[in-house]
């Protein structure tokens, strides 16, 4: 009876593993792994465009969404076939180091400065982001930073630099680094009546807005360019070169560009395709 | 009933100056005795005399610290099968049915024809109606009968019984004693510890009287109860022995 | 804490969006909305939701099974074996019961990454990696609790089994079988740990929609998109599911134990 019991246990285990494995293969043998940012995922863009791509090519795109820094690291380790992020200088470095084949511009969206409706720093309605940041720092109004090496975090840091605010010196209890994604940063800002820099896509699809609203938008310096890179098969032989390239070609081609433009939340377009724009 | 390999015997069991100690304390010392085939030997003595320890040493659950206790066949086994078994004071019932308890013991001991012998055993001791019941939910008496039947099913030449009735009521005690009589008639050599003088008188052919870890008398039952050789044994038989 | 304290006093906007990633739109959000969300999820039988629940269950159950197949004999062995350093191993395994899922996830991640020693398997960001990570989380629980249970049972069975010649490794099947009802509780504890954790599966699975997204990572995601009602609704569903499985297992084990006289 004991031997039977043990045997049954083994059979059950084997069956479960087999079923799980079958379930996986049944979901399609053709797939690529794309490492991307939380903003593209949380905004719902992938939910809109990936089914279109799959219908077109039969290729499943499995998206792992992380901060831009992490997403690039995932590509460096060879754990993704395609990297789709938004931090241009880091992308260029990535390709220069030989981890990526080529960077191609895809689209841009813009950042918005979100703040409490009560607007303690008095920056609401401004079109000058550097001015607004300086005011926030001077008034020591609460500010939530992603602090997670993401593209948005990188953009935020460069904006502080443009505004000539030396964070290392002026950091205080007003400046809160949370080390989490965009959604978490918005939740935290809502709870703390703080300002926060967010990408418009995540903001539009964010539901827990509470007392938060847009404080500053429309500044040229808030534009946020996305690029896509095929991980270099010369570095990682297992990279699915053909299927990865197919995804990149589709994204930057007319069909993909149209799909991106078509994605709207509440009638608002989130991402603006610009694959053909030189120097983007 | 007898299997072919029972033609040879594991007896006699011989102890030479066997002793057992825990730390500095000797629980059994200088034990010399021989168990021959075909009788019921009772290990008699007050509580704490070392009776259970004596049986465990004979059965091989523990080894003597000094001296030796040996079977005529190595380890008391013939053809790799142990031919002695033991029933404990508090029967160990596995968490399964009465019949599954028999099956388990037969399989563990490497016996042949397991199913048939389990059924034969149940039949033999009138336990058929309990076969499917969880062994641990049986009454104390039923558990001890099952334990005895389980030991019997292994076809031992020698069966050690450690105070098999000390926790039972008079009715259950009688049933167990009847089973012991049956085993005796079948020719199983029995070694039973007890502190019950009347029970020793009823069942035993021979008495080993144990006191404070030493065998102080070794005689036939009638001799022992007629004229105990030591004052300690006399006091015990008279019910006056305080340990 | 602050985040959740805030939930109760927030007035949720009535806002629609057209995202395909999240099909479970919830418009009227108030104090009861998490429960309504949970009901809609369970009763609506949304295929996406069912896929997530199915994946959660199959990943966790497989992990528990693997941990059982490895951990039960190992725990029994540890209960019976005597060797130098045994106490140290017992303390270590007991301590590993508290292994933070994130740490386990990170270690598995580093092992399975294409740049890691097991990268050639290509298991990272697949359900297999999640199963491995959860097995590792459950294994110490199974080993540690099995050891304790088998040690106690051995104390009871020792003389009888020794008398029958079942000592050491040969006693393990008997002991495991006879401890089956207590061990069922051990596996439930393991199931609880695996089904509740998010750190490990998030890191090694990548939370890929439709492929490695399970209930706990969905909850984390919905929290980050600010859909707190849906996140809580998912949480309630997970809790209900865990409750149901525990109730079934408890009932079955109780009845079985009573029938076998093991209680």
As a whole number of angstroms, the C-alpha radius of gyration of chain B is 18 Å
State the separation between the terminal residues of chain B, measured CA to CA.
Answer: 44 Å
Structurally, the number of domains of chain A stands at: 2
Looking at this structure, what is the CATH superfamily of the largest domain in chain A?
Periplasmic binding protein-like II
Q: What is the CATH C level class of chain B, in words?
A: Alpha Beta
Radius of gyration of chain A, in angstroms, nearest whole number: 22 Å
The helix tally of chain B amounts to: 8
Order of helices and strands of chain A: HEHHEHEHEHEHHEHEHEEHHEEE
Helix fraction bin of chain B = 25-40%
Mean pLDDT of chain B: 91
How would you describe the oligomerization state of the chains in this entry? heterotrimer
What distinguishing features does this structure have?
A: 280 residues, alpha/beta, D-Maltodextrin-Binding Protein, domain 2, ten-stranded mixed beta sheet, two-stranded antiparallel ribbon, 12 strands, 24% strand, globular, C: 263 residues, mainly alpha
Can you put this structure into words, describing what you see?
The complex is a heterotrimer of chains A (280), B (243) and C (263). Chain A is α/β, with parallel strands linked by helices and 280 residues long. Chain A is 45% helix and 24% strand. In chain A, strand 10 (264-265) and strand 11 (268-269) form a beta hairpin. In chain A, helix 11 (241-252) packs across helix 12. Chain B is of the alpha/beta class. Chain B is built from eight helices and eleven strands. Chain B has helices at residues 51-59, 98-108, 114-124, 140-153, 170-186, 197-203, 221-226, 231-237, and strands spanning 13-22, 25-35, 40-44, 66-71, 77-78, 81-82, 84-87, 158-162, 189-194, 206-211, 214-220. In chain B, 44% of the residues are buried. The model of chain B has no long low-confidence stretch (mean pLDDT 91). Chain C has helices at 2-7, 33-44, 47-80, 86-96, 101-112, 127-163, 172-178, 180-196, 199-205, 215-224, 228-260. Classes of the chains: A alpha/beta (280), B alpha/beta (243), C mainly alpha (263). The interface between A and C is large, with 60 and 55 residues.
Question: How does the SSE layout of this entry go?
Answer:
The complex is a heterotrimer of chains A (280), B (243) and C (263).
Chain A: H1 2-26, E1 31-37, H2 38-42, H3 45-57, E2 60-66, H4 68-77, E3 82-85, H5 88-96, E4 100-116, H6 129-139, E5 143-145, H7 151-162, H8 167-170, E6 175-177, H9 182-192, E7 195-199, H10 200-205, E8 212-216, E9 223-231, H11 241-252, H12 254-262, E10 264-265, E11 268-269, E12 272-273
Helix pairs in contact in A: 11-12
Chain B: E1 13-22, E2 25-35, E3 40-44, H1 51-59, E4 66-71, E5 77-78, E6 81-82, E7 84-87, H2 98-108, H3 114-124, H4 140-153, E8 158-162, H5 170-186, E9 189-194, H6 197-203, E10 206-211, E11 214-220, H7 221-226, H8 231-237
Parallel strand pairs in B: 3-9, 3-10, 7-8, 8-9
Antiparallel strand pairs in B: 1-2, 1-4, 5-6, 10-11
Chain C: H1 2-7, H2 33-44, H3 47-80, H4 86-96, H5 101-112, H6 127-163, H7 172-178, H8 180-196, H9 199-205, H10 215-224, H11 228-260
Helix pairs in contact in C: 2-11, 3-6, 3-7, 3-8, 4-6, 5-6, 5-9, 6-8, 6-9, 8-11, 10-11
């Amino acid at each position: 009876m004991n031997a039977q019991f043990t045997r049954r246990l083994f059979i059950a285990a084997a069956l479960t593993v087999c079923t799980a494995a079958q379930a996986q293969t049944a979901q399609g043998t053709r797939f690529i792994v794309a490492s991307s940012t939380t903003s593209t995922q949380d905004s719902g863009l992938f939910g809109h465009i990936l089914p279109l791509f799959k219908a077109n090519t039969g290729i499943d795109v499995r998206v792992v969404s992380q901060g831009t820094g992490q997403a690039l690291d995932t590509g460096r380790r060879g754990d993704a076939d395609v990297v789709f992020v938004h931090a241009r200088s880091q992308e260029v470095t990535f390709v220069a180091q030989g981890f990526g084949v080529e960077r191609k511009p895809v689209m841009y969206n813009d950042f918005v400065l979100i703040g409490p409706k009560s607007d303690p720093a008095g920056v609401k309605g401004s079109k000058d982001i550097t001015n607004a940041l300086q005011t926030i720092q001077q008034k020591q109004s609460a500010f939530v930073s992603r602090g997670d090496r993401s593209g948005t975090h990188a953009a935020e840091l460069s904006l502080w630099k443009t505004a000539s605010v030396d964070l290392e010196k002026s950091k205080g209890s007003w400046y809160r680094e949370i080390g989490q994604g965009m959604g978490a940063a918005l939740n935290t800002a809502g709870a703390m009546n703080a300002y926060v820099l967010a990408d418009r896509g995540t903001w539009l699809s964010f539901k827990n807005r509470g007392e938060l609203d847009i404080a500053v938008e429309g500044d040229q310096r808030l534009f946020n360019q996305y690029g896509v890179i095929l991980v270099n098969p010369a570095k990682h032989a297992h990279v699915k070169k053909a299927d990865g390239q197919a995804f990149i070609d589709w994204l930057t081609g007319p069909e993909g560009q149209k799909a991106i433009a078509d994605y709207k939340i509440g009638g608002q377009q989130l991402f603006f395709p610009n694959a053909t724009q030189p120097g983007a | 009933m007898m299997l072919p390999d029972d033609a040879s015997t594991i007896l006699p069991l011989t102890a030479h100056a066997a002793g057992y100690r825990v730390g500095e304390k000797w629980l059994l010392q200088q034990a010399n005795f021989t168990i021959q085939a075909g009788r019921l030997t009772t290990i008699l003595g007050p509580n704490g005399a070392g009776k259970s320890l004596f049986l465990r040493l004979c059965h091989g659950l523990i080894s003597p610290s000094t001296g030796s206790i040996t079977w005529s066949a190595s380890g008391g086994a013939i053809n790799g099968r142990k031919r002695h078994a033991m029933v404990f004071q508090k029967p160990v019932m596995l968490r399964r049915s009465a019949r599954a308890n028999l099956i388990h013991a037969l399989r563990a001991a490497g016996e042949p024809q397991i199913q048939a012998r389990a059924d034969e055993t149940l039949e033999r001791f009138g336990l058929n109606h309990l076969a499917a019941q969880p062994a641990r939910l049986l009454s104390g008496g039923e558990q001890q009968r099952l334990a005895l039947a389980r030991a019997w099913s292994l076809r031992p030449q020698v069966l050690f019984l450690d105070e098999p009735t000390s926790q039972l009521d008079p009715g259950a005690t009688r049933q167990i004693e009847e089973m012991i009589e049956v085993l005796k008639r079948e020719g199983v050599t029995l070694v039973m510890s007890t502190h019950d003088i009347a029970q020793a008188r009823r069942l035993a052919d021979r008495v080993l009287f144990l006191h404070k870890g030493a065998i102080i008398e070794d005689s036939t039952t009638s001799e022992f109860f007629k004229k105990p050789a030591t004052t300690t044994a006399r006091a015990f038989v008279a019910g006056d022995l305080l340990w | 804490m602050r985040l959740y304290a805030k939930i109760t006093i927030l007035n949720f906007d009535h806002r629609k969006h057209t995202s395909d990633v999240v099909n479970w739109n919830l418009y009227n959000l108030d104090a009861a909305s998490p429960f309504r969300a949970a009901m809609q999820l369970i009763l609506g039988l949304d295929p996406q939701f069912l896929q997530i629940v199915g994946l959660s269950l199959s990943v966790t159950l497989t992990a528990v099974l693997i941990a059982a197949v490895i951990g039960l004999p190992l725990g029994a062995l540890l209960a019976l074996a005597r060797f130098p350093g045994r106490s140290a191993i017992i303390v270590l395994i007991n301590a590993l019961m508290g292994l933070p899922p994130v740490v386990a996830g990170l270690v598995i991640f580093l092992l399975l990454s294409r740049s890691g020693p097991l990268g050639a398997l290509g298991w990272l960001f697949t359900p297999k990696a999640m199963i491995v990570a959860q097995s590792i989380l459950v294994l110490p629980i199974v080993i540690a609790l099995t050891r304790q249970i088998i040690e106690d049972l051995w104390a009871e069975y020792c003389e009888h089994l020794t008398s029958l010649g079942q000592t050491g490794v040969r006693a393990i099947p008997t002991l495991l079988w006879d401890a089956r009802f207590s061990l069922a509780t051990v596996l439930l504890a393991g199931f609880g740990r695996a089904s509740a954790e998010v750190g490990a599966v998030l890191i090694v699975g990548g939370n890929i929609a439709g492929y490695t997204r399970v209930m706990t990572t969905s909850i984390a995601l919905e929290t980050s998109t600010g859909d707190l009602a849906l996140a809580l609704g998912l949480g309630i569903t997970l809790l209900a599911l865990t409750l149901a499985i525990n109730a079934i297992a408890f009932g079955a084990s109780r009845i079985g134990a009573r029938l076998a006289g093991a209680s």
